């Protein structure tokens, strides 16, 4: 907790999802899940066939989002989930959206 204001400190994670994760509605469902659970950030397809996401929120929110990403969506097959700590953007990211493929 942040002793200054009593709020849970936020963290950020850069996540790469590998497998059959493009063309199956993965990004759209990711956006819906993140928005529903108050997670800020973005998601995008990568040219190598993976999906990449920057997630910002409380540690428990990020753990739940990563568990959701591991499970995937119907039609997807998640082979690997790579998660690394990312610096918390300042100012805080607002909302959750899709970025163009990179």
Can you describe what's shown?
The longest helix has 13 residues, at 59-71. The chain has helices at residues 26-36, 59-71; strands spanning 11-20, 40-45, 51-57, 77-86, 96-98. The chain has a domain at 21-84: Alpha-Beta Plaits (2-Layer Sandwich). The chain has 102 residues and is an alpha+beta fold. The chain has a five-stranded mixed beta sheet, with helices on one face. Mean pLDDT is 91; it is low at 1-6.
Largest sheet: 5 strands, mixed
How many helices does DSSP assign?
2
CATH class of the domain at 21-84: Alpha Beta
| Count of β-strands | 5
Shape: globular
Give the terminus-to-terminus CA distance: 35 Å
Helix content: 10-25%
**CATH topology-level fold name of the domain at 21-84:** Alpha-Beta Plaits
Round the Cα radius of gyration to an integer and report it.
13 Å
CATH architecture of the domain at 21-84: 2-Layer Sandwich
Strand content: 35-45%
- Rounded mean pLDDT is 91
Low-confidence stretches: 1-6
The ordered string of helix (H) and strand (E) elements is EHEEHEE
Structural class: alpha+beta
Strand order of the largest sheet: 4-1-3-2-5
